[in-house]
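## retry 2 of 3
previous attempt timed out at serialization; input unchanged, resubmitting
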Amino acid sequence: MTSRYFVIINEEKVKAFNAIADEENLNKDELKKVVDTYIYEQREPLPNDIAKTLNVAPKYLERKMIVTRVLERIVGFVDKFYEK
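## retry succeeded, writing output
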């Protein structure tokens, strides 16, 4: 594979990461920590870890739904851009 291919993949990875952070209103530094932990420890993030990425604390009744949605997006992101 050419280096151009890797540049394009990296650009797409950055775009996807930023899209998740922006659309879900997440702290990018905390999101990166959660994604890195998921990749290197090969375990899904805990709900409390995901909750730490939120810039705005959700109402109690909305928290589970939001955390579940963010978890699905993180898992999809890692599955798409990183080898297991």
